[in-house]
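Reopening closed ticket. The problem is back. First fold of the pair:
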Amino acid sequence: GAFLLLVCAPVRAVMGFVAKHSKAGGNEYIEKVVKHLDQCITCYQSYVEFISRNAYIDVCISSTSFCTAAKNSFGFVASEGGKVLTLTGACYIFTIAGTLGISFLTGLLTYLLVTTNGAWTSSDSPHYVENPHFVTAVAAVLAGYNAMCF
C-alpha cells in the first residue's frame, strides 16, 4: 500500500510538468487530457490511502498478507460502510479533543512552572525567563505537534 502511494507521487509530478508546458505551448488538447489523468490518479491515490489504512489494521489483527488484508478490508467497508464512517468520525473527534487537551495542559503546566519557580522568575538566575507567555505558547504548540503523532 505504501509502495503504491510512493509510485503515485512521481507520476503526479510528471503530469503537472506536462500540463504546465502544454498550457504554455498552447496545446489545449494535451492540457485537458493531462488534467483528467491527474484527476484519475488523485482518485486512485485517495482510494489506496483509505484501503491501506484499513488493510494495515487487518494485517495486524489476522496476520494475513497485505493484498489479502486489502481485499478483506474493502469487503468489510463495503458491507459496513455507515458504521465505519461513524466510527471514523468519532475517532477523529477524540483525536482532536485529545490533542487539544494535551496541548492545553502542557501549556498550563509550563506557565505555572515558569511563573512560580524561582529558577525562572528570579532576574539573577541564568535561566531567567523574561517572557513566560512566549515560552508557554512554544511549549503548547510543541506538545500539540507531539500529540498529533499518536
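Second fold of the pair, where the issue appears:
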Amino acid sequence: MGCSIQKHHKILGSTIEASKVHKVTTADLSIKPISFILKNEYDFTLVYRLGQPISQSHTAEVRICFLRETNEKRAVKIYKKDISQSKRESVLKEISILKSLDHPNIIRIYEYFESLSHIHIVMEYCSGGEFMTDIIKKHALNELQVKKFIRQILSATNYMHESGFVHRNIKPDNILLEDETEYAEIKLSDFGTAAHYCQGMEERAGTLQFMSPEMIQGNYNEKCDLWSIGVITYLLFTGKLPFVCEENEIEQKILQGNVDYSGEVWDSLSEHAKYFTQVLLCREDSRLSTKEALNHPWLNEIQTVSEPKCCTKLLSNLTLFHYSSKLKQALATYLITQCVPNSELRELKEVFNYLDKDGDGKLSREEIMQYYLQDNGIEEAELLVQGIIDTLSCEKNEFISYSEFLAATFDQTKLLSLNNLKKAFEMFDKEGSGSNSCQEFKSIIDEINL
C-alpha cells in the first residue's frame, strides 16, 4: 500500500473497523488504480516520518512526510478523531472520491490510516505550493499563462463532473503547483466538500467569495464549480476578486451579480477573454458547462503545441506493447500509481497532454487515431489503435485512462525492477502463501531477464 511494505506491528486495541488483509489472486484481480489505494492497518508513525507543516485549517493539518523505507517525500492530511461523526463521514467520503479519480491535474492519493486518535491521508507532495502564492510572487500573468492554468483547472473539473462529482470549493488555496519550475502544472486538491452531484442540491459548502449565487439560495447543480472558476479567472486577470466589499455585503453583491469589466486591464485583454469570464460569472441557466468551457474560442486560441521530442519513440513502442498476463498489467498499474515519483513522469505526462486535444484527462479513440493517421492510412491506423485500446483499457472502454497510458509507456525494465517487484509482491501476497502468485512473479522476472 503506497509502497510502504515493511512489516509493522498492528495497532492493538483499536475499535476502528478495518478491512482485513486480503491476499490478491489473479482470479479476482482488478487492475484499476482504485484497487491499490487501501487503508493501511499499521501505525502511521511506523511507516512515515513527519516533516514540517504546510497548512492548517480548523479541522485538519497538512504536513510533509517521508516514507521511512525510501525517504520519498509525500504530503499527509491529518484529521483528529475528536471531530463530529458527520465530519468523520465527510473525511471518509473525501477518501472515497479521491480514490476514484485518475487525472493528471488532480492530486494523487497513495493510502490512508485510521487510528484511535487520527485519520491520515497520504498524498503526493507538490513542491510548488499553493497556486496563488506563486502568482503573487510573479506579480502578473499574461493572457496566455492565465489560459494555460484555467484550461488545466477546467480539465480536472470536467473529469470530476463526468465522474459524477462536484467539488464545491474550487479556490486558489485548493489549487497546487506540482513543482517549482516554469512548466509546472496545477493539481486540484482538498476534496473535503466534494460530493456526488444531482439537480437541486441544497447544502451550502465552500468559501463565500467563490460561492455561486444559486448555492447561496440553496438550489444548485455542478455548475457552481464553473462560477468558482470564473471568479479565479477574474482574479488572475485583475489581481482582485469580482466582489470587493465588506464581508456582510458579499452575499448580496454575489446575488445581484453586477461584475465590473471596465478599466485598463479589461481594455487590454482580447474580446474572447472578456466574454469567457462573463459566461462563467452569470446566471446558472446561461453559464457554460465544463465541456462547453473547454471548447470556448478563447481556450482554443492557445498557440499550437509542438510535438514532444520523445513522442514518436513512445508511441511507436506503444503499438508493439502488450501485457503477457493480467498480473503483469496489475503490477504495472500498482507500481506506476503507488511507487513511481512524479518527477520521473514528466515526459510521459507531456506526451499525454499533447494527445489529449480536448483536455478531458482521457485519450479517446479519435485522439489516438489523429496521431497515427499522420504516418498511416485509415485502415492501418484503425488496426493499430484498436490493438492499443484492447491491450491497455482494463475495462475495455473506448478510451485510455491517464494511469493506463503511464503504465504502458514508462520504461518497463525500470518499472518492473527486482526491487519494485519485491514491493509489489508484498502487496499482492500479504501472508506469503500465494504459491501461484510466486510462480507468476517468477515468470515475469524471467521474462524481463532480471
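Update: turned out to be a display glitch only; the data is intact. Residues 5-28 have pLDDT under 50 and may be disordered. The longest helix spans residues 143-162. Please close again.
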